[in-house]
Amino acid sequence: MKNKSNLLLLSAFLGGLLFTSLFWEERLALNLLIYSVYLLIITFINPDVVKSTKLKIYGLAHLLAAVLVVINNSNLSVATYYISLLIFIGFAHHQQIRTVFTAFAAAILQIVTVPFNAIKHLSQVSIGNVSLRPIFTLIKYIFIPIIIVIIFSCLYAAASNVFAHYAETILTNIGDFLDHILHFFFKDLSFGRIMHFCFGLVLTGGLLLAFFDKGLEKAELKCKEQLVRIRRSVGQKTIWYNIVQTFTGNLLTRKMALKTEYIVGIISFAALNLLLLMLNTIDITTLWFGYEPSGNFSGELHQGTNSLIFSIVMAMAVILYYFRGNLNFYHKSKTLRLLAYAWMFQNFILIISVFIRDGYYIEFHGLTHKRIGVLVFATLCIIGLATVYFKVAKQKTIFYLFKMNGNIWFALLLTFNIVNWDIFIVKYNLAHETAIALDADYLLSLSEKTLPTLDKNRKALLSHSFVPKGEIIISSTNDQILTRLDNRIGYFKERYNKSSWLSWNLPDWNTAEYFGLNK
User: Fold this and answer.
1) Which region, left, alpha or beta, applies to residue 249 given φ > 0 means left and ψ of -120 to 50 means alpha?
2) pTM of the predicted structure, to 2 decimals
3) pLDDT score, position 462
4) DSSP classification of residue 131
5) What is the pLDDT of residue 144?
6) Mode of pairing for the β-strands spanning 130-131 and 126-127
7) Which residues cross the membrane (predicted)?
């Protein structure tokens, strides 16, 4: 036990040193990959971590996410990196967890509670015959009051500007004092660098030191994937029974309450099917065939798409409500299932309408991250409907839906990172500049990896030849566009020349190669 604690604490300390060496005044790129390799090695040599096939799969998924940060270096790739890291850590220290959502939450809990985990491990460390337990027992009594004081200081600072001013002055003076002491002994060391190391130490410790409370894991173990019929005693009432009894008194028995829920479900799904049939008929006749933009085309598509996506999510919620329990086993539920299947099919048609709306938007206004996001979300809705159908047909639980959709969403998240979306958007819009309302301001707001493509297509960037009927396009002047482009190129050159090998990534290297900076 002592050797294990010594190894993990030493690993956390070395991880803190590695963290500050890799990330101090650097961009997130190759350094993230190096840091991940270190975390993977320490996790897999930890004797408490079971090296299961599931853990290896999520470890490889995280390694892929780290590699994609170096290859694409986008906000999406960095966000995916963090998500995959937390999921991997959650599964590493809680092997019986089955969903990525619980693994993510477990990792967050582990990081938040790292001070308690560190104290627990440090109390088990001994130097020769001297145990550190008494020292850290004392620290434990001091640590909690300090945390409470810090929390309330932040609250009081937010409530009073005067208090915030004095608190900032005190902290500044303390920081300056510590800086003077550090500079006296170490000229190149600053208080900020020390705090950066401490942050890296805490973060690495949170990722490597397992949280000793397995309550979250035990709670998930109680969740089942297959629905079972719950037989209650005569005196035991369902929640639905109690709600109905509030309005009807004692007229209904428990059996009648289930029948009432069935009848209400039949009426609800029948009415919803008719309502959605009307909407789908309108969309098919006016949107699917021979659609021509008119009036506030952009606003209509934007508002309609948001409403439809929200309605699809609500549709799945309604289905989950009615098929959450014993109604799945009701002997007359076949009609209700058929109505539910019909409504799922109609929602699928509704998703096709969302694709068509977004397709028209892209056709006339080009690609943007939000429009791609709508396509992605509509795809997730199709997957959600498919899993909901399987849940109803095979009498699965909501927990099963969380497990299946979580794994599918995570796999899609990694897949979407393979594409460099900023470059894809710029190339698509510039290639169709005669057919879309080109938004030069939006293209200039994208990441620096698009600068070579924008610089090659300066003439196309200044083109505003196409405007959809009924639309008013407001954009910067040509001189303003060229000035912004030149300023961004100049800023990139200045930043790239100051970057070290730790900030290396493929998009920056390609951009620098185009502008002749790689020598």
Assistant:
1) left
2) 0.81
3) 78
4) E
5) 66
6) antiparallel
7) 33-50, 62-91, 97-118, 138-159, 194-212, 262-291, 303-323, 335-356, 372-392, 404-424
